[in-house]
Amino acid sequence: MEVMRLDSGDAVDWRRGLFDIGMDSLMALELKNRLQASLGLAIPSTLAFTYPDIHAISGYLVQRIFPDAGPAMVASAQDAAIEHRVLAAAAQIEDLDEAEMESLLARKLESL
User: Fold this and answer.
1) Rounded to the nearest 5 degrees, what angle is found at the Cα of 28, between the Cα atoms of 24 and 30?
2) In a domain, 3, yes or no
3) What is the rounded distance in angstroms from the CA atom of residue 50 to the CA atom of residue 64?
4) Is 18:48 a contact under the CB 8 Å cutoff?
5) Count of domains in the chain?
6) Residue 7 domain flag
7) How much is the pTM?
8) Number of Cβ within a 10 Å radius of residue 28
9) CA of 11: how far to CAs of 8, 63, 85, 91, 104, in Å?
10) How is residue 70 annotated by DSSP?
């Protein structure tokens, strides 16, 4: 979120390409540097080009962090990320009144 300069409330489709939602080459390098520093792993500068969405990057990182992990562990990590997003979305809409909910639904339908 910080690299993309998005508000924390902005919903990001984890399968949508990072460059499709506004990432540029400098942001890609910043993402690589942040991941490298926080994980202590050597991350290729081409990360966002080779793995162009959050889903692909998460799979790559799970395999790097857990090299002996099979496809089931990668899928499980991605499922956990989806569950986290669903719970966060539920918490955001829980406090909306009827008019706010209707407005949110209308915006989502327009974006389809």
Assistant:
1) 115
2) no
3) 15
4) yes
5) 1
6) no
7) 0.54
8) 19
9) 8, 26, 9, 13, 12
10) -
Give the contacts of 58 (CB within 8 A, at least 6 positions apart). Answer: 14, 77, 78, 81
Taking every pair of Cα atoms in the chain, the longest distance, rounded to a whole number of angstroms, is 50
- Residue 55 sits in which domain range? 25-111
Q: Which pLDDT score, from 0 to 100, does residue 1 have? A: 44
Per residue in 6-64, pLDDT tens? 565 456 666 678 888 778 889 889 989 989 998 888 999 998 888 888 888 888 888 88
What's the pLDDT score for residue 33?
Answer: 92
Residue 4 belongs to some domain of the structure? no
| Residue 6, token pair as written in the block | 């998005």
Whether 8 maps to a domain, the answer reads no
Closest CA to 40 of 59, 73, 63, 64: 64
Q: What number of residues does the chain have?
A: 112
Measured CA to CA, the distance from residue 54 to residue 44 in angstroms comes to 16
